[in-house]
Amino acid sequence: MNDVPATPPGTTGFRRPGDAVLTSLGLGPAPLLPSDASPHSFPGGGTWRTEVPSVEGPEALGAVLEESARLDVPVHRISQGSGVWMLTDAEITEMVKGCAERDVELCLFTGPRGTWDTGASVRTDSGGAGLRARGHDALAGCVEDALRATGLGVKCLLVADEGVLWTLHRLREQGALPADTTFKVSALIGPVNPASYAVFEQLGADSVNIPSDLTLAQLTEIRRVSRAPMDLYIEAPDDLGGYVRMYEVAELIRRGAPLYLKFGLSRSPGIYPYGRHLRELALATARERVRRGRLALDLLARHGADGGMAPLGTRLPGPLNRFAIPS
Predict the structure, then answer these.
(1) Cα dist. 10→22, 28, 310 in Å?
(2) Cβ distance 256 to 217 under 8 Å?
(3) Contacts of 72 (CB under 8 A, 6+ apart)
(4) Looking at 145-288, which runs of residues are DSSP E strands?
(5) pTM
(6) DSSP secondary structure of 186-198
(7) pLDDT band at 208 (very low <50, low <70, confident <90, very high)
(8) What 3-state class would DSSP assign to 274?
(9) What's the distance, CA 162 to chain centroid?
(10) How far, in Å, CA of 164 to CA of 255, rounded?
(11) At 2, is the pLDDT very low, low, confident or very high (cuts 50, 70, 90)?
(12) In contact, 235 and 267? CB cutoff 8 Å
């Protein structure tokens, strides 16, 4: 089990920003409540892991790995947003090899989704069906991507549709996908309440992106019903709101553990779907995401809250609750 008996390691006793001087002025913060803290951690210990998103090919991956070594930024997971179908077999194989050499998890996005489809509803003011897979063919495309990617050694798949998630989970349970494949729910459909978060866990999610604008109290509410790892942009891209929450990192971990710290980048042009015409932008933003990670980790260290990192090379979520699969 990945429960721990008390507040997770690395999340107690940290120095809150400006605490001492503000307290001296009678402006100290409200006390931290033990009941707000998550009771969960990753298997093997630790309350947080790191992720660098939007790494769109082997060259960008090389830039991230080089910069993470230069800036001493530990990386647990690399994720890509354009999709499996935007990479050749040779490119996927090169990314798998590069991540394996550094013991980093590689996560690739599956299949067609709303913004790359003939359906117009996603472009209306209401957003229509959003990023979900429209029709049987889009579902089949996602499954095809999953089979192809895992066949080339990819162990983590990013999904943006509940039906796709449930289908891939059933395939994993049947052995059509490797048993150690993990599924990550995209921020584009991230749940915003405890009940919907728990449903994603039951459908087969191994980590779930939540919108970066959820409050601290809402993180605690989710943790009361689910232990599935949480993915959270500490800095979100502009199309996800552009939120920057670096100063809250320690408290986000305390309430949201087990938590992936995602180092996104605001004020940056979109790069999906990626191609060579966006090469310089993709490389520059990849390096800057790693630098943003360094800034967030420095804040954790200055506040005495950097001791809870999960061991590098760990990737599995531990025991989770699932819906029964019909026979």
Answers:
(1) 23, 22, 10
(2) no
(3) 294
(4) 156-159, 182-185, 207-209, 230-235, 259-263
(5) 0.90
(6) -GGG---SHHHHH
(7) very high
(8) coil
(9) 17
(10) 29
(11) very low
(12) no
